[in-house]
Amino acid sequence: MKTLRTLALFSGSILFLFSCGKSSDITIANRIFDEAHVLSDVQKDSLITMIRNIDENLGPQIAVMTVVDTHGEMVDHYSLKKVRELGLGRKDMNDGVLLLVSTKGHAARIEVGTGLERVLDEDLCLSIIWEMAPKFTAERYGEGLIRGLDKVRGVLMVNKERIGKK
């Protein structure tokens, strides 16, 4: 895992980290993990619809996970462990993305596979983070995740031909 950037937002006690993830095959049905129970059914449906759209039209595999805490692990270690457990992304493209939010730990992390690093570069990811942060600070996690995933989808749509290129 190569850490691309770390941004601490002290006003909201939100820590955002970005790095590269691992890839392989999983199904759409198991890509929303709301262990913190902060997503409404409507929000889950919106996220699933967005993930299905990305999967069917663009290819990258995306998952969303909320947890109460990371059980004493640093968010980057926890997130990497989860990416490995999920086998996220297409193996030949290494194009997985995991959006992880820890509500009690006030932390979030986005893991980006190496096949998407040229598409979701540091500047774009920083922009996405600044758009999600106010929602997380206000404990409106679902809205923040939907906003972030929508931004990721837009970037992927514009850069479809670059997906999977290292």
TrEMBL record:
TPM domain: residues covered: 32-153
Source organism superkingdom: Bacteria
InterPro entries: TPM_dom
Pfam hit, one: TPM_phosphatase
The protein's name: TPM domain-containing protein
Originating species: Chryseolinea lacunae
The organism's taxonomic lineage, starting at the top: Bacteria, Pseudomonadati, Bacteroidota, Cytophagia, Cytophagales
